[in-house]
Amino acid sequence: MENFSEPADWTFPIPIHYGPGRIADLPEIAKRNGMTKPLIVTDRGSENLPFVGELLDRLNAAGLHTSLFAGFSPNPLDHEAEAGKIAFVSGQHDGVIALGGGSGMDGGKAVALLAGCDVPVAEIDYQLPVPKAEHFPPLICVPTTAGTGAETESTAMITDTDRGIKICIAHPDLHPCATILDPGLTIGLPASLTAWTGVDAMVHAIEAYSVPDFHPLCDGAALEALRLIGGALKTAHAEPENINARGAMLVGSCLAGISFIKGLGLVHSISHMVGAVYNTHHGLTNAVMLPPVLRYNEPSLGKKAGEMAHALGYADESFAGLYAGIVETLDSLSIPTGLADLGVEESEVASLAEKAMGDSATDTNPRPISLPEMKDLIRSGLRDNR
Ligand SMILES: [Fe+2]
Question: How far is residue 232's CA from residue 198's CA, in Å, rounded to a whole number?
Answer without folding.
Answer: 9
